[in-house]
Structure formats: C-alpha cells, structure tokens
Design a protein that fits this description.
Blueprint (H helix, E strand, L loop, with lengths): L2 H6 L7 H10 E6 L5 E5 L6 E4 L11 H7 L7 H4 L47
C-alpha cells in the first residue's frame, strides 16, 4: 500500500494517524498467526488495539485476542489462555460476500431446489 493510500483510506489497514499514534504511545505485546499486531498504551494499559494485516475487519482477529482486546483477560492469550484442544479448529475471518460463503441446500445461489414437502405441513388459511 502506498503512502497516499495510507493517508486517505482506513479500510486497507492502519492509516497514517493510527501508525503515528501507535509509534508514539503504543507498546507491541504480541502477534497472531494471521500477522495482526497487538498494542497496549504505554501509560494506560487498559487501552488496547490491533493493527490488522490487510483489510480492517474485526473478524480477522482470533477469539483469544478478541478477549484480550475487550479486557476479558488481563494478560496476552499466550500466557492467559489454556492450550488449544485437539478438536478445536482455527478461526476463520468473516466469509460473507466471498466465494466461500456458506450456502445451505435450497438456497437460490445453489440452484434453489429444495426437497419436496413430506405431507406433514398444512398451510394456514384465514377464516
């Protein structure tokens, strides 16, 4: 992303003023697997924020880091959270509007064919 884009757009990552504020007042506390960088204010540790790798979308931060950002856990997730269990899947960003969006059977985007009614349904009619 170019310098001018960082000044005039907020949706493509941190803008110029956010980067300046972070440099002056922030202390990096961690990074996640997606490349997002998490900061805490040097003077007020209750102030926390993230600079996303890529577009600004809160669903790009994993649940553990979401808990830290909201102050639900005091320490960073690596120290405060228990180890991941074997059945846990990694988090995914919001897939709405992409080709990976969930489309159940019968949805118009999958052809719109639903299974036939089984006969146990009777439509309501006004009297």
């Amino acid at each position: 992303m170019g310098f001018l884009a960082s000044i005039f757009t907020w949706w493509n990552g941190a803008g110029f003023s956010t980067r300046l504020f972070t440099r002056r007042h922030g202390r990096e506390v961690g990074r996640d697997a997606a490349g997002n960088v998490y900061f805490v204010h040097r003077k007020d540790p209750r102030r926390r924020w993230v600079i996303y790798e890529g577009s600004n979308d809160a669903s790009r931060a994993p649940p553990q880091w979401q808990s830290w950002l909201r102050g639900q856990i005091a320490d960073v997730p690596d120290k405060a959270m228990p180890a991941a269990r074997t059945f846990e899947k990694p988090g995914l960003p919001n897939l709405s509007g992409t080709g990976e969006t969930y489309r159940p059977a019968g949805s118009l985007s999958r052809g719109g064919k639903r299974p036939a009614a089984t006969g146990d349904y009777q439509a309501w009619t006004p009297d």
